[in-house]
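Structure tokens please, single chain.
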Amino acid sequence: MKKIILSLALLAVVGFGISKSGLSDGERKMTADHLTETLNRLTSTVDGLSDTQLNFKATHESWSVAECVEHLAISENMFNGMLQGALKEPANPAMRDSVTTGDEKLIGFISVRNTKVKTREPFEPSGKFGTHEKPYRHLWQKGKNILRM
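Here you go.
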């Protein structure tokens, strides 16, 4: 589930910049393929789980699967807002040399969670969506919108 969370967070950042003007065909394909794989992994993780399984927490501090799905939707909304703001600014070619990590390496780095990191409060699940279905549908719809670009 952690790999799904981080992959979707990364794709929220990369994916909303998928417009034809900013990405090469190869970058667009890589992003679309990774998004499709991640959404399929999310589906295979939550499909068929009972309410008890979706809401099970191994410890008081851990999140349930339903809370993880809500966290993904919250993160996607927040990252999208930040990215849309950043996209309003013109590109700065002088900053290109400061990019030291390629896409594949970044995806690999973000997808592997060997160290637990506590998220900031605005990204924490609060139950505002109700069941896991609303944030799950939200993520799928956003993913489909990105893939149509």
